[in-house]
């Protein structure tokens, strides 16, 4: 229905424009004079003007066409980098036109304009070239009432964002036959040149994802191998080999995360992400959370060469998170500039020009359709301080981009220090092979991994009994990204459980809370000074509320799953003809979630219940790591924040099967992205086996798999005794008879447990009992 109305509207506009340019009676009579021929008026003409295009512009009028269905960006076509992309021709004198031939990307529409004098305001749309069935370059012909023009312009595509034109011809009268027979040229698809395999030119983003899937399966297999050997009471069998293989897989996985030094395969810097966080923090007092794209458009528009491009630009309205035009913004530039001093405005324009040039034409236009700057006021403390040290330049951006690798390697060091290399190897495998949080998203950006360092570092400090420092770290990560606050739920549950049983509060947990309180007491006042007062928090709250009511295609979590309906998937709801193509999809997701809120509440309560039982009697760091699973339950996050799985992976130290489960999850996420069954036919039972390829469905399924894994881990910790978690037959038999645990040699895969090693008891615990240390504090899990 939307497509029908849009086509109807386009037809009406085209007719109205044609009527506005109807020629005089004398011009109409010219059609029947010898001067009005069926020759191509544009044959081998060079453009008089061109904007935002790439390729050999002579190809557009060389009267040679590609085979129908040729690759849209094959060498015979020019590519329009933005919706403002166009090419203009001067016919030399006022000339009557009535017919056009266009070969262009088939799933887009293109506008043809005419003008008598070539001034910007004189161009009127003659006709809109509509889409056509089929992929790739497709020919279309259109006719109009005879119209006199001197300048012809084609471009300003509307569709999927990828526009190209391979041939454009104009006629006074249509030739016969119409379309005419043009010379055909080959248009083979582009291919990578043959190069030695060891140069890794074959290693791209898709190959990397498949390789990560294999690494996850390999690591999972090694863990299951160890579990199987322990079940047979032969834990030392091939122990050295297994240790070496696990270390190798961990190292290779971490290297693969960085794509073995290929990073983004063309560059290291993530220009898009850095633009948002660098400009957003540097000019936070002027831009706040809702003026980034508006002010960037105003800055661009002050360059006459960019004005038309900005006029046609569609940007994300950061007050509503809906796409819209720039018309109102350009009509009132003072609404943006009044927040700047003249000096700061000139600085802003210079920095915007730097990022515009770094992006390239097309990517810069696309960058204005994201969701702006969303960091917390506490993140802005360091973000704005560092960004304001100098104007944006290659040197400054390169240096700032090194902060995240420093955080990553610092996190690795802390985990190694606290847990040892075996747990580190498993954690790195989980971190590096999780498809939703790959380097692709935030690698090479500006301060995007600081929160992960403090989250993992906080758990590591608590593991080493640095409870107060761990609390400070956990408060900092919470103030940086908010959602890590869920790691406090497990420790608070343990405090409540202990108080209900003993009427005492465990000092370890109180130290964590005290450290967190100190972090808040220090960081929040500093952020108030750096961001201009309490209004920064008011605006951050409003911005966060806006985001919670704006579905994104790469969201994951319980809410994403609850809001999903197959008939409301993006492949059915997206409409490229709208200002916001995803608008109908967003509204449908919000409506469905409102209708299923009760289901969401029941599921969330179920996870809380599992956590309540899982944290009984555990060590503080285990309570924090288990609590991290609630992040996927309590908040809907963009996929790249699922790097927090590295914290859950630390539970491998206590339960080997937890590591195996998480690796099964990460391997599944890459399998979902691969979607190997997508090529099955659309008929019969086969269509039910086809895996989705649209992001909104893929990330929903990745979130579902992750939540299943989390639920299983919580269940194991809550309801399966630790001694039986490996399925040891000897332990089962002994415990079934009511005896204590046999003295067995420690597994080579198990890390030392300080609490267990220091524990002393006169008699072995009996089934159902709780062994406690001095002061009644629980030290171990009941044996069943």
What distinguishing features does this structure have?
alpha+beta, eight-stranded antiparallel sheet, 34 helices, 784 residues, Jelly Rolls, disordered N terminus, disordered C terminus, single chain
Structural write-up:
- The protein is of the alpha+beta class.
- It folds into four domains: 2-176, Jelly Rolls (Sandwich), CATH 2.60.120; 222-257 and 404-581 and 588-719, no CATH class; 271-373, no CATH class; 753-784, no CATH class.
- A hairpin with an 8-residue loop joins strand 6 and strand 7 (124-129).
- Helix 5 (271-282) packs across helix 13 (377-387).
Largest sheet: 8 strands, antiparallel
Mean pLDDT: 87
Note poorly predicted spans. 1-31, 189-193, 724-784
Q: Helical segment tally?
A: 34
Helix content: 40-55%
| Whole-number tally of structural domains | 4
Radius of gyration equals: 31 Å
- Tell me the number of strands: 14
How far apart, in Å, are the first and last alpha carbons? 63 Å
**SS class:** alpha+beta
Shape: globular
Strand content: 5-15%
């Amino acid at each position: 229905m939307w497509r029908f109305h849009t086509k109807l509207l386009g037809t009406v506009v085209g007719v109205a424009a044609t009527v506005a340019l109807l020629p005089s009676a004398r011009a109409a009579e010219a059609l029947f004079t010898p001067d009005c021929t069926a020759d191509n008026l544009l044959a081998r003409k060079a453009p008089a003007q061109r904007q935002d295009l790439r390729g050999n512009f002579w190809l557009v009028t060389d009267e040679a066409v590609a085979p129908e269905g040729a690759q849209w960006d094959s060498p015979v076509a020019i590519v329009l980098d933005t919706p403002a992309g166009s090419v203009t021709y001067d016919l030399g004198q006022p000339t009557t036109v009535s017919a056009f031939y266009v070969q262009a990307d088939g799933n887009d529409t293109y506008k043809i304009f005419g003008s008598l004098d070539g001034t910007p305001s004189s161009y009127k749309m003659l006709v809109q070239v509509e889409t056509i069935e089929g992929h790739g370059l497709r020919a279309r012909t259109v006719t109009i009432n005879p119209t006199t023009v001197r300048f012809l312009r084609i471009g300003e595509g509307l569709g999927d964002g990828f526009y190209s034109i391979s041939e454009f011809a104009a006629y006074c009268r249509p030739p016969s036959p119409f379309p005419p027979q043009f010379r055909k040229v080959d248009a083979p698809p582009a291919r990578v040149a043959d190069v030695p395999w060891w140069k890794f030119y074959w290693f791209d983003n898709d190959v990397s994802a498949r390789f990560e899937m294999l690494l996850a399966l390999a690591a999972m297999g090694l863990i299951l191998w160890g579990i199987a050997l322990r079940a047979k009471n032969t834990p030392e069998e091939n122990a050295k080999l297994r240790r070496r293989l696990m270390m190798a897989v961990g190292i290779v996985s971490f290297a693969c995360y960085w794509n073995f030094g290929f990073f983004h395969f063309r560059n290291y810097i993530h220009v898009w992400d850095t633009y948002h966080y660098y400009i957003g923090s540097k000019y936070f007092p002027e831009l706040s959370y809702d003026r980034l794209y508006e002010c960037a458009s105003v800055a661009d528009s002050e360059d006459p060469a960019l004005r038309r491009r900005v006029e046609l630009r569609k940007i994300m309205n950061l007050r509503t998170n809906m796409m819209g035009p720039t018309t109102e913004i350009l009509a009132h530039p003072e609404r943006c500039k009044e927040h700047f001093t003249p000096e700061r405005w000139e600085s802003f324009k210079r920095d915007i020009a730097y990022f515009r040039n770094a992006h390239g034409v097309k990517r810069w236009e696309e960058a204005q359709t994201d969701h702006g700057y969303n960091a917390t006021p506490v993140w802005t403390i360091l973000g704005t301080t560092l960004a304001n040290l100098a104007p944006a330049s290659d040197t400054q951006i390169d240096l700032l981009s090194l902060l995240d690798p420093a955080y990553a390697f610092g996190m690795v060091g802390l985990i190694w220090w606290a847990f040892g290399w075996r747990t580190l190897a498993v954690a790195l495998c989980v971190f590096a092979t999780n498809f939703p949080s790959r380097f692709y998203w935030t690698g090479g950006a500006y301060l995007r991994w600081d929160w992960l360092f403090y989250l993992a570092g906080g758990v590591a400090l608590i593991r080493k009994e640095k409870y107060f420092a761990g609390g400070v770290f956990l408060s900092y990560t919470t103030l940086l990204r908010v959602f890590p606050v869920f790691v406090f739920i497990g420790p608070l549950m343990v405090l409540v459980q202990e108080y209900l049983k003993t009427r005492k509060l465990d000092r370890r947990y109180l130290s964590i809370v005290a450290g967190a309180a100190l972090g808040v007491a220090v960081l929040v006042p500093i952020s108030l000074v750096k961001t201009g007062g309490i209004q920064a928090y008011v605006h951050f709250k409003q911005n966060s509320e806006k985001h919670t009511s704006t579905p994104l295609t790469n969201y994951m979590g319980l809410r994403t799953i609850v809001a999903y309906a197959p008939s409301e998937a993006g492949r059915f709801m997206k409409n490229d003809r709208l200002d916001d193509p995803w608008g109908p999809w967003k509204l449908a997701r919000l409506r469905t979630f409102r209708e299923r809120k009760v289901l969401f509440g029941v599921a969330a309560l179920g996870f809380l219940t599992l956590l309540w039982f899982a944290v009984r009697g555990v060590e503080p760091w285990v309570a924090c790591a288990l609590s991290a699973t609630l992040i996927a339950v309590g908040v809907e996050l963009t996929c790249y924040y699922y790097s927090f799985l590295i914290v859950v992976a630390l539970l491998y130290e206590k339960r080997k099967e937890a590591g195996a489960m998480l690796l099964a999850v990460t391997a599944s996420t890459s399998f979902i992205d691969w979607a190997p069954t997508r090529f099955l036919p659309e008929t019969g039972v086969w269509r039910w086996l086809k895996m989705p390829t649209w992001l909104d469905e893929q990330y929903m399924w990745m979130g579902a798999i992750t939540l299943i894994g989390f639920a299983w881990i919580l269940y194991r910790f809550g309801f399966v005794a630790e001694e039986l978690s490996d399925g040891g037959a000897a332990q089962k038999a002994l415990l079934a008879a009511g005896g204590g645990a046999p003295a067995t040699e420690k597994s080579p895969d198990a890390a030392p447990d300080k609490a267990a090693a220091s524990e002393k008891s006169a008699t072995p615990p009996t089934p159902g009992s709780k062994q406690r240390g001095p002061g009644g504090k629980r030290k171990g899990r009941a044996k069943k």
